[in-house]
Specification:
about 40% strand, elongated, five-stranded antiparallel beta sheet, single chain, Alpha-Beta Plaits, Ribosomal Protein S5, domain 2, alpha+beta, 2 domains, about 30% helix
């Protein structure tokens, strides 16, 4: 699964109609209305504000007055096909006076999304196993070297009588740490975490 890093916009023109596609990353589902309202304020004379979004298990699309199935659903299918989540795609249309026909209209909405998508920076979901490691100060350098080499994520570190380190690791890295520690590292599993990088 992928998320997008930032807002991206692109415009195409087809038979005098302007199609402005905008991708928005979503932190919560309530943002969808705010982003659509912002586009309505930014492009107040547009005829249609067609959209699709995916947020966790929720999905929604709207043709916003275009012929049924020519805009919202194809945009949603585009998001699904590209394995995107927590994303809103809105295509604003300024009608240019020429009717495109259902199939050409559908194709133009999808092409608008494709063009904007080429500008998107994707963040890939990576699943990590989380651990709390407790060990002597003498092992800090060796452990940090292993973590750095394996793109682990250090979540917190506390310097007490021993070091207590919370980390998120790729598969197999904990085995290397345990082997290096040779019985001198206390390892407590703390579940799983998905991180987008």
């Amino acid at each position: 699964m992928y998320r997008i890093k930032e807002v991206v916009e692109d415009e195409i023109v087809m038979d005098k109609s302007r199609f402005i596609a905008t991708f928005f990353p979503l932190e919560n589902i309530e943002e969808t209305k705010k982003f659509i309202d912002n586009l309505k304020n930014k492009y107040p004379k547009a005829r249609h504000y067609c959209y699709a979004y995916i947020f966790d298990e929720y999905m929604k699309s709207s043709d916003d007055g275009e012929p049924s199935g020519t805009a919202g659903r194809p945009l949603l299918e585009f998001l699904l096909r590209n394995d995107l989540e927590r994303v809103l795609l809105v295509v604003v249309r300024y009608f240019g006076g020429v009717k495109l026909g259902a199939s050409n209209l559908l194709r133009t909405y999808v092409n608008s999304a494709v063009n904007a998508f080429q500008k998107v920076t994707l963040l890939k979901r990576r699943d990590f196993k989380c651990y709390r490691l407790t060990f002597d100060y003498t092992l800090l350098g060796v452990i940090q070297n292993i973590l750095h080499r394996n793109d682990a994520i250090q979540e917190s570190i506390v310097y007490q009588e021993k070091i207590v380190l919370d980390v998120a690791l790729n598969d197999g890295v904990i085995d290397e740490i345990i082997k290096i520690g040779n019985g001198r590292i206390e390892v407590i599993p703390r579940g799983y975490k998905s991180i987008y990088l």
